[in-house]
Amino acid sequence: MKEEKGLKEEKDMKGDKGMEEEKKQERKKVILSGIQPTGIFTLGNYIGAIRNWGTMQEEYHCAYFVADLHSLTVRQEPAALRRQSLEAFALLLACGIDPEKSLVFIQSHVHSHAELSWILSCYSPFGALSRMTQFKDKSARHADNVNAGLFTYPALMAADILLYQPDYVPVGEDQRQHLEFTRDIVEHFNGIYGNVFRMPEAYIPKTGARVMSLQDPTKKMSKSDTNPNAFITILDEPNVIVNKFRRAVTDSETEVCFREGKDGINNLMTIYSVITGLSFEQIEKDFAGRGYGDFKAEVGDAVAEKLRPIRENFARLMQDKAYLEQQYRKGAEKAAAISERTLAKVKKKVGLLMP
Ligand code: ATP
Ligand code: LTN
Question: pTM for the whole thing?
């Protein structure tokens, strides 16, 4: 009621046209996503998520961040984590994210993330947290360190997202479950307190949302794989990329075609299709009768060429640490201003006495 009255008064002052203009501007959609600084980004990270981040900034308000707090859920070497966080920030810029157009920052520089995460963890059902695939996978892989942070990881991710009230969250397939978890929190929370959070939607690409390991194409390509031949990093040198593709595990047939059971070839076709923009039909036609060797070599060349400018941008950016520092400080300041508005609203709604 109060809000309606406020809106009417505002409308009287600005007139219908002014309000419409403002509304149009307000409706520019908001995008948000994050990535952990657990190593140099892989071709999977690039194809499944980051390649869309740069193009989206032309049309939407975008916010991207280095999820360093999330990385603490697995034991990290402190000096390495610091280095990787700066590299991850530089990699985002190298992939085309422009700090003049998008908000780019480092998660731990913005206090509201950890703070909202605590509040949301009190609205996160134990049962739902226990069903998270990533929790089950990571606790199996790090059986000596199954900590509370690993368990409540989705509450921190929900806080990251909801603080900025985004419409879409561009991620790979493996994050779908965490997005669903966030949406359940929104429904639960808004159900109790009214319209506090905007309902976010996952934005998952149709092709390339799950790039597979080159050594075991039934497993997701992951930057923390212990076998470096299983993944391509976006900074790998062209000859390394070509060699890794040459060694990629396929099958005993010879025909390049997308078919159930041909996991290795399906993966290479997916990568090649995203990188070149060619359809599967076209790829099948182009490689008819040519065998896997030829195909692997072309995939390697195409990927190496696509990643070349990123590698060059990264090398240039890492030469200028002062510029990177200036950009992440500016990002943190802007992110704090936006996120603190949502945090204050939440604190008020749940009944915390305002200072
Ligand atoms: P880690 O190995 O440390 O768990 P990761 O390689 O899985 O890391 P994240 O930082 O967890 O990478 O993910 C960053 C983004 O990349 C997320 O949106 C995630 O969904 C996406 N992504 C990760 N791996 C792949 C993949 N193999 N294919 C497609 N998208 C992926
Ligand atoms: N959990 C994600 C990284 C991440 C994220 C986020 C992605 C942390 N917070 C918010 C999107 C929105 C991952 O492991 N890939």
Answer: 0.92
